[in-house]
Design a protein that fits this description.
Strand 1 and strand 2 form a beta hairpin. Helix 3 runs parallel beside helix 6. It is built from 11 helices and 10 strands. The protein is of the alpha/beta class. The chain is globular and about 60 Å long. The longest helix is centred in the middle third of the chain and has 20 residues. The protein folds into 2 domains: about 170 residues, 3-Layer(aba) Sandwich (Rossmann fold), CATH 3.40.50; about 80 residues, no CATH class. It has a 6-stranded mixed β-sheet, with helices on both faces. The protein has a 4-stranded antiparallel β-sheet with strand order 2-1-4-5, covered by helices on one side. The chain binds adenosine-5'-triphosphate (ATP) and magnesium ion. Magnesium ion binds next to helix 1.
């Protein structure tokens, strides 16, 4: 079964068509990448998938159900979570608190009960803390649990966002340029982490400019240029696709 089906997805901003009649599907367990030059519409696709933006036309189906008009918290509850190109951590919160708050997008009743100080919830709170600590270990930030999110270097902020996105136990996780600001060894660790996330049973949709990473981890690649899909297929074929090479002027792809 297709986990995600995007059909004729279009988003206009005034006169600009940021996403233009884009079709693609993501299967359960896949690692799929969306690539394309700056301004191609990649982040806008993520904003549409997560309800931050509403499609002008077209449909998005998640587990065969249309989610076009759903609000971000409803989409999160259905099992889609994301990281942001420009990291958006909670200000004045430690790393572990950031991950714990990520989890609460899933359970609002829990939050209400927590405010009322109910004992069952205190136990849940402990579980939430334990789970947050597990996720920090998962992304290699266990030593940074009590550091303010905003005090972490960029690479670690990105890892923290991944931990926070995992806290909702999503079926599909959208990573928007997770390798931006990471050095080579951090990027290599990120590749391992992406495989580990998949091995936990999640499906991954990855927007990334680091072609080495894309070519290494992706099962399948969608290429956008000026809002349109210009190619789709396995990495080895994408790399040699004439239109793709043109769109990138040969550079990033050839060096991958
Ligand atoms: N909220 C908005 N209002 C108006 N224009 C927007 C909005 N969001 C994005 N755009 C425009 O839509 C186009 C696609 O932007 P988008 O951020 O999706 O590109 P991208 O592929 O993620 O690029 P990058 O690789 O630089 O992150 C750009 O021309 C951008 O300026
Ligand atoms: Mg972007």
């Amino acid at each position: 079964m297709h986990l995600l089906e995007v059909e004729a997805l279009t988003k206009r901003f005034g006169g600009l068509i940021a996403v233009n009649a884009v079709n693609f599907r993501v299967d359960s367990g896949q690692i799929k990448a969306i690539i394309g030059p700056n301004g191609a519409g990649k982040t806008t696709v993520f904003n549409l998938l997560t309800g931050i933006e509403t499609p002008t036309t077209g449909t998005i189906k998640f587990e065969s159900k249309e989610i076009n008009r759903k609000k971000p918290h409803q989409i999160a509850a259905l099992g889609i979570s994301r990281t942001f190109q420009n990291t958006r951590l909670f200000p004045n919160m430690t790393a572990v608190e950031n991950v714990m708050l990520g989890r609460h997008t899933r359970t609002r009743t829990e939050m209400l009960a927590a405010m009322l100080g109910m004992p069952a919830v205190r136990r849940e709170d402990e579980e939430t803390t334990e789970r947050a600590e597990y996720l920090l270990r998962f992304v290699g930030l266990d030593k940074k649990a009590n550091v303010l999110g905003d005090d972490l270097p960029q690479g670690e902020r990105r890892l923290l966002e991944i931990a926070r996105a995992l806290a909702t136990e999503p079926k599909l996780i959208l990573l928007d340029e997770p390798a931006a600001g990471l050095n080579n060894s951090e990027t290599a660790k990120l590749a391992e982490m992406i495989y580990k996330i998949r091995d936990l049973g999640m499906t991954i949709l990855l927007v990334e400019h680091d072609m080495g990473l894309v070519m290494e981890v992706s099962d399948d690649v969608v290429v956008l240029n000026y809002g349109k899909k210009i190619a789709e297929g396995p990495p080895l074929l994408i790399r040699e696709d004439e239109q793709v090479v043109q769109a990138y002027l040969g550079q990033e792809i050839a060096n991958a």
